[in-house]
Specification:
Distance between the termini of chain A: 56 Å
Order of helices and strands of chain B: HHHHHHHH
Radius of gyration of chain B: 34 Å
Largest sheet of chain A: 2 strands, antiparallel
Number of helices of chain B: 8
CATH architecture of the largest domain in chain B: Orthogonal Bundle
Largest interface: A-B, 23 and 23 residues
CATH topology of the largest domain in chain B: Rna Polymerase Sigma Factor, Chain: A
Distance between the termini of chain B: 75 Å
Structural class of chain B: mainly alpha
Helix content of chain A: 25-40%
Number of domains of chain B: 2
CATH class of the largest domain in chain B: Mainly Alpha
Number of strands of chain B: 0
Largest sheet of chain B: none
Order of helices and strands of chain A: HEE
Shape of chain A: elongated
Structural class of chain A: alpha+beta
Oligomer: heterodimer
Strand content of chain B: under 5%
Chain lengths: 47, 194
């Protein structure tokens, strides 16, 4: 059996987060409204 | 492609003013740098995705609540958020359970000192010295194979190549070496235990 000496490169430039994560973030952003009343802030998430 | 020419600061401003597309451009532009940074520290795809998601949830909340005031330094700011979340992750996972000594529970039931006592160390040393002396008594060809196998951790294939004999001969010499050692030990009634 050939031995593999090369190590997996951790900080590869082509790494990307899952598509689902990005799409969740975009949907979350669209749904979120932050309302500030005096020194308090309220997060409203629209369904 | 026109997106490439819009600076981060302007995209952040547009996003705060309600332009949702600006966020998707910012994510697309920096996702691999930020995700790569997280993955380089975490080395686990799923946890890295979680931390990436938490990072941008913080970004979104901060921007939407108008608390962002670092114009022009969007990427370093996001990197700092993800760095803090990575530190939090390690704090959570590396936390040691705490034990408190009570009447029913002794702390020494979970703690132990595995190192040898002075007496056992002396016995081990003595056994090793005795064994080396016994090995010296073996015929040269058997001694050679035994030393190579046990002390130099070589395979029988390597031993056979080095001593220029077949693997079977090397195996046979090892067998005779062990048999002879046992014979000498029995004959002189030597006790080799610790």
């Amino acid at each position: 059996m050939a031995k593999i000496y090369s190590k997996k490169e951790l900080a590869s430039k082509n790494l990307k987060p899952k598509k689902e994560v990005v799409s969740f973030l975009l949907n979350y952003s669209q749904a979120l409204t932050v309302v500030k009343v005096k020194d308090k802030s309220f997060e409203i998430i629209a369904n | 492609m026109a997106d490439l020419h819009i600076p981060d600061a302007l995209l952040v401003k547009n996003y705060i003013e309600g332009n949702e597309t600006a966020l998707s451009i910012l994510i697309k532009r920096h996702e691999s740098k930020i995700y790569g940074f997280i993955y380089s520290k975490i080395a686990d795809r799923d946890i890295s995705n979680d931390i990436f998601q938490d990072t941008f949830i913080k970004v979104i909340k901060t921007l939407k609540s108008n608390s962002y005031n670092e114009e022009g330094k969007f990427l370093p700011w996001v990197m700092r958020i993800s760095h803090n979340l990575i530190v939090d992750h390690f704090r959570k996972t590396k936390k040691m359970p705490m034990y408190r000594e009570t009447e029913e529970f002794s702390i020494f039931s979970v703690m132990s000192d595995d190192s040898l006592t002075i007496e056992s160390k002396m016995i081990v040393d003595q056994v090793e010295v005795d064994l080396k002396r016994l090995i010296e008594e073996l015929p040269e060809d058997q001694k050679e194979v035994l030393v190579m196998r046990m002390y130099q951790d070589m395979s029988f294939k390597e031993i056979s190549e080095l001593t220029d004999v077949s693997i079977n001969t090397a195996l046979g010499r090892m067998r005779y070496a062990l048999m002879n050692l046992r014979k000498i030990i029995d004959k002189h009634q030597i006790i080799l235990t610790n």
